Amino acid sequence: MVEHGLTMREGDRRDRRPGAHIIENQDGKLIGSFIRLTKVRVAEFRKLLAEEQQQTVSKPEMDIKSTHLPIRRTTADFYNEYPIPKASDTLPVLSKRHVTKRPQMNKWQTELWLKRMSEVNTPATEPHLPEPPLRIIRAEEARFHRKIRDAIALQQAILDQQAPETGWAALERDATLAKWHKQLTPYQRQLRDSFNRYHSAKQAWTRAQKSVWLRMNGKSRRLEKICDRLLLEFLEVLRFVVQTLLHIVGLRSTPATPLRSSVTENDRPALEAFRKRHDAEFSAMADQATLNVWLSSRFDRLVDARAQRIQQWNMVHQPEKDSARQEIKRLSTLLTRKPISSKRQVAIKQHPSSTPAFLPSCGSS
After folding, report:
1. d(CA 321, CA 83)
2. How does pLDDT run across 244-289, given as a tens digit for each residue?
3. SS3 letters for 8-38?
4. Are 270 and 256 spatial neighbours (Cβ–Cβ below 8 Å)?
5. CA distances (Å), origin 106, targets 85, 103, 109, 291, 326
6. Residue 245: how many CB atoms within 10 A of its CB?
7. Of 95, 125, 169, 212, most Cβ neighbours within 10 A?
8. What is the three-class DSSP state of 7?
């Protein structure tokens, strides 16, 4: 509006029409109302005026006066006491550029490197041996040498064979005995309980036998039947416990046969025979001190049996290993001999021998 020589001011009738503005030229001549000329609504125009007044009244963001310190100069050394900050102090400090450092060598690596560098120009104390001359062989000879090396590898595999139990870990005496005792404890208790039931029934039957009245009314006979039944049950438990003992210490390959629910008189002969055959094991399970001695001797026999099996295996395979050792010695000499012709190789293949058919015997040249 200023470019066209026009100005806008508030109207003269402020009390009746607040907010009305008129437009005049430089000579003060009335041009017209701003609202009529611009076709703007009164509400929007008043809103624009309110925003303009609020912006003019509000304090600007960058006020120079707000940076002044409310301090009066009181001394002559005022500026020395409160120095003005330099421009370099107010500027932001730029971060340093990241520099990748090489990893540092250890002390022993540094000493080794320095020692090697110092020995670079040191003359050798021993003369260098001349390299062997390069030898060019035919393809037939190379294939023949490869077959010899394969045959040597087969014989070396025979020499490297060992007894199956050689690589097993050695048995620890204390650990093995403790493990056996822990496994046998519940079976000892089971055998003792079964024997106590049978022993109590036998004592009751023995007392009944001494009484004429108990023999006459038949109670002695009933106690005898109970005693026989408990005896069969005890023999069955004994059979189960002894078989378990033999399986734990390695004298039986399969676990013990489970306990049978009912045992008849027909099973008595087999159970009695089993008890007589394994009387030592039954005595060991019945007494703890006897069991300790029995397990200790069993461990010693177990170790001796393993050593004997290893020794027996070596004795059986010793002739085979000796033959393999001689064969390796003979085949190694063939690698250093003068190469033979293809016709000679064909003749060697046709010659029967215990060694591979393509290899000559010890007497051939």
Report:
1. 101
2. 999 998 888 889 999 988 888 898 899 999 999 999 888 888 888 9
3. EEECCCCCCCCCCEEEEECCCCEEEEHHHHH
4. no
5. 48, 9, 5, 62, 52
6. 27
7. 212
8. strand
